[in-house]
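[job 0412] stage=fold_complex status=start
inputs:
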Amino acid sequence: MGDLELNILGNGSAVPTKFGNPSSQMLTYRGNQFLIDCGEGAQMQIIRYKVKYRRLNNIFISHLHGDHFFGLFGLLSTFHLFGRENAIDIFAPAKLKPLLDHVFRTSDTVLRFPLNFLPLEDFSDTPLLDKESFTIRSFKLKHSVPTYGFVFREKPLQRKINKEFIKGRAIKTKHILEIKAGSDYVDDKGILYKNGEISQKPRNPLSYAYCSDTAYHEDIVEDIHGVKLLYHEATFDESMLEMADDKKHSTAAQAARIAKLANVEKLLLGHFSARFKEFDTLLQQARDVFPNTFISVEGKPYQI
Amino acid sequence: MGDLELNILGNGSAVPTKFGNPSSQMLTYRGNQFLIDCGEGAQMQIIRYKVKYRRLNNIFISHLHGDHFFGLFGLLSTFHLFGRENAIDIFAPAKLKPLLDHVFRTSDTVLRFPLNFLPLEDFSDTPLLDKESFTIRSFKLKHSVPTYGFVFREKPLQRKINKEFIKGRAIKTKHILEIKAGSDYVDDKGILYKNGEISQKPRNPLSYAYCSDTAYHEDIVEDIHGVKLLYHEATFDESMLEMADDKKHSTAAQAARIAKLANVEKLLLGHFSARFKEFDTLLQQARDVFPNTFISVEGKPYQI
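[job 0412] stage=fold_complex status=done
writing structure:
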């Protein structure tokens, strides 16, 4: 498993089908886990696809249409029954908080673990998470109810010092950090080592963006610019352009246009209307605009 | 398909497993459909097992633990999205009503069809449904929150008049009904025909009872007496008797004891704890008490 992995638990839309479950996906970054949306059955999909969730401490809910959060009640209940004690942070539109309280009051459940509710409305300018090695930010999508996209960005990695160079030398921590940050190094005898000779360029930072549900919306291009992987909804095909506009969803080609404008590396399509039995048309229409497009598959781990 | 069929959509308990979904089952009687409990994922199980639901107009929720009703929000939303217009009657503990309203308000859904909510608390002495050919009644189970069992009973069928006897005779409707009810018949010429010679005994009435969740509770024996099929929870095995008592659940042997006392024809066990990977022990312990016991299987149609 690489440093950043995506597991799609559901890529269906409002009405589930045999192969399209309600929206939910697990993003795993070096042992940190993030659940993005939690449609009905998310916990069963986690079991079916053997997706780990022990390091899940953050849940992000894009908007309050049922196919994006009806699985939250069951998932949290199960964590409770498993004796979980670690807190869970839920980032979601504010209106979800009183509903969660109502659900657990009705189902006679007093959660064993702290549930920290963080209204997405409070994060218009600040990241949801700003950690040493990554950030997660939200941005506004264009849908029939307030809806947010999410973007994960790894922070630039430090340079890796050549092992042979370190071996046998007593280099102070202070200098180690300087070399990792790109500085040259002068040893006790006054010998200069150019940074490029004693350290390696790290790989490029990893990044991922989730955009569902949304109409075609160019405002998001800046937010998701250059991500390695973009998951964008593609509820309809080009023949349903008017319906997409009316229902504030996107066609596959519109998703591809966003991917192209944002100069992302790879595009995954999802949130398919239940009317589609095959996805060749959607894929072709998107690839005509942005060739590096793929149909998302539930249960398949994507290394980003 | 016979006149009465049961499809078990979920026979797991609070924590779902790969093979044990949250409680839900569909009972179909001559085109009438009844959904009993609606745990998370019920609508996906309906799709998976190709269970018809067009004639579903009545939903019964035994109690308000999440594994018995968290699938209701998604199921009703799907009916709405499919353009359903026929009313649905929901029989459930009263506290579910304001929660349903809250869920649909939050998920921005105004159901297209009338949703009639009938609090189970209002039916302590009267049947939930009393139709020409059947009744459905509720009765109290013994659990940690108010919980109801349900029993379906077909009304006694009328006798079938021999076709050869009717053929060529102009028998008045009034007399037809009398013969069906068991009377002899005297024709215009004064000839007496004994009922047993001109009509056949109908099959015995069909019946089914659902008991989940409940501790061992002999008070229900009268309510479910003599049913052809009893589904009774068996969360635990005999080694967990104390836990069963503490959590107000039953062991398989306790379920069998109820089946025996109630003189039912056949017992189906369900609502298994997630700790069981196989059910041989549960089955054996129950069969030692009541031999005609079976482990329920999700997706298998049971002809009653």
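[job 0412] summary: Chain B has a mean pLDDT of 96.
[job 0412] exit 0
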